Amino acid sequence: xRKLLLSAVIGYLLIANAQAANPPLxxxxxxxxxxxxxxxxxxxxxxxxxxxxxxxxxAVIGIVRDGKLVALKAYGYRDKDKGLKxxxxxxxxxxxMTKPQVAVGVLALTQRGLLPLNSPLASYFPAVGDMKVAIPxxxxxxxxxxxxxxxxxxxxLRHTSGMTYGGRPDSSSTVANLYPPGxxxxxxxxxxxxxxxxxxxxxxxxxxxxWEYSVSFDVLAAVTxxxxxxxxxxxxxxxxxxxxxxVDTGFHIDPAKRARVARPLPNDPLTxxxxxxGVIEEPVNFECGGGCSVGTVPDYLRFGQMLLNGxxxxxxRVLSPEIVKLMTSNHLSASIKNNVANIEPHxxxxxxxxxxxxxxxxxxxxxxxxxxxxTWNGAYGTGFWVDxxxxxxxxxxxAAPGEIRKYYREQVQDLVYxxxxx
Length: 422
Prior knowledge:
Blueprint: H1 2-17, H2 37-52, E1 58-65, E2 68-79, E3 84-85, E4 92-93, H3 98-110, E5 133-136, E6 142-145, H4 153-157, H5 191-198, H6 216-228, H7 232-244, E7 294-295, H8 297-308, E8 312-313, E9 316-317, H9 321-327, H10 340-343, E10 350-352, E11 357-359, E12 374-378, E13 382-387, E14 392-398, H11 404-418
Antiparallel strand pairs: 1-2, 1-14, 2-3, 4-7, 5-6, 8-9, 10-11, 11-12, 12-13, 13-14
Helix pairs in contact: 2-11, 3-6, 3-7, 5-6
């Protein structure tokens, strides 16, 4: 009987997942995991429509429930110009999905007593203690005041450092133009050069007062390198990627794997303007913690399952259960202005933990999920979420760096929950 069941499972995956020869987690049949196979076909129909309409070259989606792989499927093309089909192990620029991995790396230092969350950033880079807070006047001029409280490691992890990103359409601050855009940071020589640049800039808010999406995780990369004495690729490799078997995740693409890279359409389907994903084409010098890594959907499924398991996977422990609970709890108190919905409109009502947005109630947001769900996305078209109440991990990848990526974030979540039967 067991052999017949195993054959049925493998048969389903071969049909549904095409090339998932080495699944990242044990496979199961959707109905056994509380999904409808027929309803999951709506995901197929959705991406087929989007690909046929020329809005996205292709996609990969992975769904895990109760630690079992429900679906792992590729759609369309990883390189449409060359006619190369998308594969489930295609490599994506992860952009800001780098941040949760860096958060885990930081917390691994914290649980070892090497990096307290309340420690001031100036303890590691003294020059940031002199950064002033810009106060805009009605006429556009700026005055400056000293920090009322120091930037802490916790501030960096929850985006309350007072820093920002340059080039973001959601930021109305005149100071934001002084900051480098996130997609330019990989070209900097190293983390020290980045910190030298940042420390000369003004803050847009007093530390600890406003959630503002920012270069905070790039700063955390510099701190992590200083505390660990290792480059980010080496440190995260030893701490997360190797223990979890994330063999295709890193800051650099092995030349032997370059043919697996997923590339965007030459032009943004919404604006018609040329589009580009730098980290998959140019060398990464500064291994920036905010968005410079690459990886696959199967690898990130294992990362998400580790967090859902309370910090361990396949006998390898990365974080303690209580440290994971700390990471995935809301850290935005009532005294902190919450701007999460400014960049994630469908996530109105979410708070923010340490590297992840956290759902605090069933309503308000435009997508289904349970309170306690935690999530983040990447600006090049990737996303993930973990719903502990539903014992669910979902990861998807597209090479869609334009505004259309936000459409896929919302639609994929609706489609996945819409296919659940319990």
